[in-house]
Structures are given as structure tokens and as C-alpha cells.
Amino acid sequence: MDEEYDVIVLGTGLKECILSGLLSVDGLKVLHMDRNDYYGGESTSLNLIQLWTRFKGSDKPPANLGSSRDYNVDMIPKFMMANGTLVRVLIHTDVTKYLSFKAVDGSFVYNKGKVHKVPATDMEALKSPLMGIFEKRRARKFFIYVQDYIESDPKTHEGMDLTRVTTRELIAKYGLDDNTVDFIGHALALHRDDHYLDEPALDTVKRMKLYAESLARFQGGSPYIYPLYGLGELPQAFARLSAVYGGTYMLNKPECKVEFDEGGKVVGVTSEGETARCKKVVCDPSYLPNKARKVGKVARAIAIMSHPIPNTNDSHSVQVILPQKQLGRKSDMYLFCCSYTHNVAPKGKYIAFVSSEAETDLPEIELKAGIDLLGPVDELFFDTYDRYEPVNEPSLDNCFISMSYDATTHFESTVTDVLNMYAMITGKPVDLSVDLSAASAAEE
Predict the structure, then answer these.
(1) Per residue in 38-61, pLDDT tens?
(2) What is the pTM of this model?
(3) Does any domain span residue 436?
(4) How far apart are the first and last CA of the chain?
(5) N or C: which end of the chain has fewer CB within 10 A?
(6) Residue 245 region by backbone torsions, left for phi larger than 0, else alpha for psi between -120 and 50, else beta
(7) In whole angstroms, what is the distance from residue 10 CA to residue 256 CA?
């Protein structure tokens, strides 16, 4: 391999594939390698036989579950915000032409042992059983403030500088009780724990606005969309994009070893005795374990069912957020369900996931609160994986390492990581000022 590349990308996880697509579109010369013979890395989707082999050690799933190839079970299940950053990236790169999306039916929150629809607007707040009548009025006023808030227009700020006022102080102004704060912070603003309460309120207000705008995109029951045939389609779509712009792909490359010069800067990647030279390397933590540290662990249960999750209005696809405080935990738990309507299971079958940041080594016990909400299950699998984040200084070694995927069932944190890496590699942000209305047609 005598060629020199601007960037070698190792691993075909979703983050790596998005980056390789964006960098190829920018005109950089990209080589993409993976030790696996399939796309998606950790974020792949498995058919039933692959799922069975991975978790049960045999390749003979019971016949009553239907055809193996009708299953596309995500290993990192996540929905996309209809107005969120990932959708903007898809439109910016025109990757939407390789994918078909469908709106997700429902967005729910767990409160005092019950599952409720998440109210996202002042009108929904008035109807929600989550709050009493006086609390509804207070919540409605808060929702109207958020809906009307425009960062560049001080007239909408009501005298508050949200870059300085904390979320706790903003919420106190409206006198909302802890239960209301719980669903606003965790099910609308999608914070993963309660640290946000003592941080500037602007971030929370922007997150709530994103939720409401996403909800309005499809007039559906949730702000989320999800690709037909599962998330395994996404890395492949970005790989196609990269190839269209001249990116080179090599799968099934064992040992991909990153090579450095005396100064510790990356010079290339060696596989099967050949070295490809490059200026920069992008990879997931598994390719450079000595430049990453373990920061946590995700516990997940995967269930195959013959019915929707109870108390979610028979939704075929749904997210339920269980805020940490409701469970006496340090972090939230997430319930994710999709079904044959998204082409991820045979007709009549549903795939549900319960995931959380692990606080013990016993996922079966730790995830019980979420599993109990599923009703009867046909099959249940448990999985845990460690989460890593980079500890290197990219300006010194030219290695750009992604963070492991977290337990959340939406893509906002994933895409933030990708865009931060892109800015570090290229020295500029991705321009995502796209007209979303023009793209809506592509997603109907």
C-alpha cells in the first residue's frame, strides 16, 4: 500500500461511518478498515440466528419465533429526534436517499409506578394525568415561556439571563413540584441525571424546544423517527456516501495496528503485513485501548414479545423513560420498543429493550423495574458492556477516538460526540443549516 491517506478510519460503528462520510464529502482521502466482516461494529443489527448464537451459544432458535431473516435486532437501540442533529446530518449529506424512516408511535414517562404519555405542549399539559389541576396551570405557564423563548430576542426572556440562571432557579419561578420537574428534565429535555438542575437553564430550554419542534414535524405521538429494517442500515448508508466521494473500504482486516513515529504521532495502520500511511486516525476505543479509560458500564435486557408494551396505547414503537428518582437510582432507565411495523421482527412480534447505566453487576435484578413493565415475554437476553472515553490529546498524536455508546435510547449524545470529533479533525464545525421542511417529503 504505497498510497498516503488523509484519514484512516478504524471500525464501522455508526460514529465512525458518519465521520468517514462527512470527511469524504469534504474532499479528504479516507481509508476505512474494520476487523469484522460486517458493517456496524458495536452498533450493528442482528438476525435471530446471530442473536441466538451471541447470547445462547447455539444457532437453533425455537421455530415459534418465526424466520431468522425477518429480525433486525439493534445492539445499540436508539431513536432519532425528528428535528435533531442526526436528521440534519442525514439531510446535509443526502444520506436520506438510502434510507426510509417511520415515525415512532409514543413517548412515555414512568411516574409513581405507572406509565404516562409525556405532555410536550401547554395544551397537552392541561390534559395530563401526571399533574393536579393547579400544577397543570403552573406547568402550562412554564411551557408557554419555553415555547415563546427566542435566544436572540430579549423581550421573550422575562428579564432572565438563561446563561446564568440555573434550571433549578428557572423552575422555582414557576413553583413546579418535584414530579413535574422529573418528567420535564428527563422525558422532555432528555437529561440523563439531575446534574442539569444546577447548570445554566438555556441548555434545558433548548432541549425542550427541540422536543416540541420534533413532535410537530410529523404530528405523531412522539418526537422520534426510526429507520425501517433497524439501525444497521445507518452505518451502511454512510459507508455508501463515503464510497461515492472516493472513500475506500476494507472489511475483515485482522489486527489493524496503529503505527506511530518517535514523537508519538500516528503514521499509518498495519494489517496483514502491509502498512497504509496516513496523517490522522479515527477509531473506536477498542482499536487503541491504551488511549482510553473505562468510565462506566451499560446493562441491557433484550426481549422478544408477542404484544406491545402494556399501558402505551398499543404503540408498535415507543420510548418510556424511567427517571432515576422514581427508581431510587443514580441514573435513568430506558425502555425502547419497536415491532414488525418497522420491519425489525416477523408479523405479530415486538422487540423491547431495557437499558441503563449499570450500578451493580446483576443486570437481571437491576433492570427489573423496566422488565416488569413489559408484560409476558417470549424470550429474554441480558447484555452488559463497558463504556470507554478517550484520554489522549489528539493535537499531539493525531488520534481521534470516539466515546462508547451510552444507555440512552435517543441519538443526541451520539451525534454531539461525532460533531466534536469532526471539528477537532477539520478545525471547523459541520454546517448543518439545512432547510428541514424541504426534507420532510423524503421521510413521509
Answers:
(1) 888 888 899 999 999 999 988 789
(2) 0.89
(3) no
(4) 45
(5) C
(6) alpha
(7) 8
Residues 205 and 126 in one domain: yes
For residues 242 and 374, membership in a common domain is answered with no
Domain count, the chain: 3
E strand segments, 160-242 = 224-227
357 and 400 housed in the same domain: no
**Those residues with Cβ within 8 angstroms of residue 351's Cβ, 6 or more apart along the chain or in another chain:** 71, 73, 302, 303, 304, 305, 337, 338, 339, 344, 345
List the domain range (segments joined by +) for residue 170: 119-218
- The reported pLDDT for the residue numbered 407 is 85
- Integer angstrom CA distances of residue 331 from 4, 200, 341: 45, 20, 31
| Residues linked to residue 399 through DSSP beta bridges, in sequence order | 281
Grid coordinates given for 281: 486516525
> Considering only 107-121, 255-269, 350-364, 415-429, which range has the smallest mean pLDDT?
107-121
How far apart are the C-alpha atoms of 358 and 367, rounded to whole Å?
9
What is the CATH number for 270?
3.50.50.60
Q: Is the pLDDT of residue 437 over 70?
A: no
For residue 298, give the amino acid letter: V
Taking only the tens place, the pLDDT of each residue in 125-170 is 888 888 899 999 999 999 999 999 999 999 999 999 999 999 999 9
DSSP 247-285: -EEE-S-TT-EEEE-TTS-EEEEEETTEEEEEEEEEE-G
DSSP H or E run through 244? helix 233-244
The answer as to whether 439 is a domain residue is no
